[in-house]
Amino acid sequence: MDEKILNQLSIELGKRLKQKKLSVTCAESCTGGWIAKVITDIAGSSAYFNRGFVTYSNDAKHEMLGVSLVSLTQFGAVSEQIVKEMAEGALKVAEANFSVAVSGIAGPDGGSEEKPVGTVWFGFAFQVEADIQTVTYRQHFSGNRDAVRLQSVIFSLKILLEEIIKN
């Protein structure tokens, strides 16, 4: 059932992007490239997807997307500030119209009282004329590692669709 949902969301996302002649990129940490995978599962996705970034480590976030080392130290990788910087960095590097960034704690380890397992931050950036606008969300998903990651991918695709329809 989940594969069907992912496929439907990916098809709809591609259709909207093609109609508007727009492109999307992703900067993924806890989802490990799953968002890019489902987007590119759709034949013809090269028309709207050029590249994505799997930035699992802090070094990768900094080196590939320009995330500030100060921000990483101050806020931690799983934070609003970091997904905002990831989304904006991916948008610039990929020269895309839309981006999604995901950083979270999928478990089973790594959680804390402040950031329990299942905590996931999302950043969505989009180009509006000469400016970049970014929106962020914090979600808490339940279940095992795969369940948290799957819910993160579904959430990402749904919000991307909403943002593309709005803009």
UniProtKB/TrEMBL annotation:
Which residue intervals define the domain CinA C-terminal in the entry? 8-163
Coiled-coil stretches, from where to where?
none
The UniProt record lists the EC number as 3.5.1.42
For this UniProt record, the keywords arranged alphabetically read as follows: Hydrolase
Q: Which Pfam families match?
A: CinA
The broad enzyme category this protein falls into is hydrolase
Q: What superkingdom heads the lineage? A: Bacteria
Q: Which GO terms describe its molecular function?
A: nicotinamide-nucleotide amidase activity
Output this protein's name.
Nicotinamide-nucleotide amidase
Q: Which organism is it from?
A: Xenorhabdus littoralis
* Phylogenetic placement of the source organism: Bacteria, Pseudomonadati, Pseudomonadota, Gammaproteobacteria, Enterobacterales
